[in-house]
Backbone:
């Protein structure tokens, strides 16, 4: 993935099933080679110094927790577009939003003193005016006071066309906003916007006193050395290895229980599993343990394996701007030629849930009337014939001098994705379509290659940016195509006026029944137009050592570091 979030995002960045290029790291072999010397020195080690040590050795440093991930985080400004699952983890650790969402889907006050409602006067009767009361006594990590001016500055930054933000969803509905006083902000919306509560849950607040004077926030030093109000302070990053955080003793929700939190980068799923097995990492999150290791993992002593439903869907993204994919019949034929059930069963051992939409099948807005075109290579070949793509002398279809040949890219080192690519490649060869594999490090594939739509196809896992709200505007409306000057995540370069209209109606509607009808139609159109091919909804296998307390799977967040202030280790 990019689990988004590529912009998640990509965010996919951040998509969730993501890996990155191999880098230098301390291995278990290095530690064992050090033998007794490591044992003699362990009493004086703390923080990052214990990274390569097995659990038995690290037990001498109580309070440390190592979170293992397979993608390297590189950007830490939570508003900017280069934001992936692991960078979202850093965001949760260092920054705060006005409120967070808990595993039950309830909003919980964070920087806000309370959740605004019509009952408490926070939301006007017409739904257009929001008055948000802020928590008193909050400070930034450098000691400066947090005030309403920081919230206003965050909005100014999000709405500044010169800043390459991850998403403006919701915030672009603001007609006017102001700081009433140091602890109150008032926002007047242009129109009703159903996901507005989610917009703020997804928006971390950034410090005005640091960023208001920088020449270009897109390239500010802050982006790699962040200062937030969150439970942990950003202490150190060693490129290709780890990020270390130290507790914020003045955190408004109470000082964190951990003495050290480390996000460790191991670019290969199975290598990370080996380190979880030995105890070199305490938590295996993000991509999840490979399903082929599920039975072995469940038998590991001192560990528990959690099934984590996620808002991410695994797709094949088509670049509709490429000549091979401008006809939807080609995209639909490719979808029918792929053995999706075989993909889920062979690669993921049947763990993920099949889906025909950008939503998981258990979401309230999922269109249960969608009809699966199925796995039908014969019908796929006939559809390509009908579209004028004829088999050439080289065995590959072509039309008007363009061969039906393309590359598929994802993060290098993601074994599951690499296996899936090989299956897809074999499927497509049977209908005379040539697919080559072109995988790259995460920092490359989810950079301009994706954002500027330079790719042919991607294998990626992304979520609705305002999940659990079903709005998908940022990935499908025509004004959200970065390659054409838009702001958003429509990397497939999909344009459909009916979709644009429906997306606008979907966020303006208030009643769930009305919204359900709108999103049913959106999903129906997308399945027919096929700008991206949905495969499955993520169910990840998360590994957690028994020594870790307070860790809780959250189906509404892209990574489970949403409550690190409550984590502890024994």
Residues:
């Amino acid at each position: 993935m990019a689990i988004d979030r590529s912009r998640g995002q990509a965010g996919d960045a951040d998509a969730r099933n993501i890996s990155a290029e191999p880098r230098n790291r301390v291995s278990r072999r290095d530690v064992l080679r050090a033998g007794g010397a490591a044992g003699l020195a362990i009493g004086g080690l703390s923080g990052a110094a214990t990274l390569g040590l097995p659990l038995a050795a690290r037990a001498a440093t109580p309070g440390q927790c190592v979170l293992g991930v397979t993608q390297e985080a590189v950007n830490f400004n939570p508003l900017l577009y280069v934001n992936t699952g692991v960078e979202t983890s850093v965001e949760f650790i260092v920054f705060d939003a006005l409120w967070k969402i808990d595993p039950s889907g309830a909003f919980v006050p964070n920087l806000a003193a309370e959740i605004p409602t019509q009952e408490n006067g926070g939301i006007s009767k017409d739904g257009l005016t929001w008055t948000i009361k802020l928590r008193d006594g909050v400070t930034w990590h450098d000691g400066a006071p947090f005030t309403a001016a920081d919230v206003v500055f965050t909005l100014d930054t999000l709405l500044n066309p010169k800043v390459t933000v991850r998403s403006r969803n919701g915030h672009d509905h603001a007609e006017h906003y102001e700081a009433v006083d140091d602890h109150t902000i008032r926002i007047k919306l242009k129109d009703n916007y159903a996901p507005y509560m989610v917009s703020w849950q997804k928006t971390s607040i950034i410090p005005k006193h640091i960023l208001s004077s920088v020449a270009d926030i897109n390239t500010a030093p802050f982006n790699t050395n962040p200062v937030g109000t969150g439970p942990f302070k950003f202490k150190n990053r060693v490129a290709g290895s780890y990020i270390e955080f130290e507790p914020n003793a003045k955190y408004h929700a109470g000082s964190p229980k951990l003495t050290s939190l480390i996000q460790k980068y191991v670019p290969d799923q199975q290598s990370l599993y080996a380190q979880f097995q030995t105890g070199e990492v305490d938590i295996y999150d993000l991509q999840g343990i490979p399903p082929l290791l599920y039975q072995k993992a469940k038998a590991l002593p001192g560990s528990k394996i959690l099934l984590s439903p996620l808002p991410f869907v695994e797709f094949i993204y088509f670049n509709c701007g490429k000549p091979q994919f401008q006809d939807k019949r080609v995209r639909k034929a490719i979808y029918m030629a792929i053995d999706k059930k075989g993909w889920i069963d062979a690669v993921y051992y049947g763990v993920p849930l099949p889906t025909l939409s950008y939503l998981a099948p258990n979401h309230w807005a999922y269109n249960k009337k969608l009809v699966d075109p199925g796995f039908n290579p014969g019908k796929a070949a006939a559809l390509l014939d009908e579209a004028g793509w004829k088999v050439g002398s080289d065995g590959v279809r072509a039309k008007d001098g363009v061969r039906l040949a393309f590359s598929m890219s994802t993060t290098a080192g993601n074994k599951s994705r690499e296996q899936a690519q090989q299956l897809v490649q074999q499927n497509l060869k049977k209908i005379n379509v040539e697919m080559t594999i072109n995988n790259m490090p995460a920092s490359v594939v989810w950079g301009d290659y994706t954002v500027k739509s330079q790719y042919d196809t991607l294998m990626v896992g992304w979520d609705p940016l305002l999940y659990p709200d079903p709005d998908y505007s940022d990935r499908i409306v025509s004004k959200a195509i970065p390659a054409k000057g838009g702001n958003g995540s429509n990397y497939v370069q999909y344009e459909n006026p009916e979709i644009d209209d429906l997306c606008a109606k979907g966020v303006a509607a208030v009643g769930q029944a009305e919204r359900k009808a709108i999103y049913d139609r959106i999903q129906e159109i997308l399945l027919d137009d096929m700008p991206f091919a949905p495969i499955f909804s993520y169910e990840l296998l998360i590994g957690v050592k028994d020594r870790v307390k307070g860790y809780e799977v959250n189906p509404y967040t892209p990574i489970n570091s949403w409550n690190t202030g409550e984590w502890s280790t024994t």
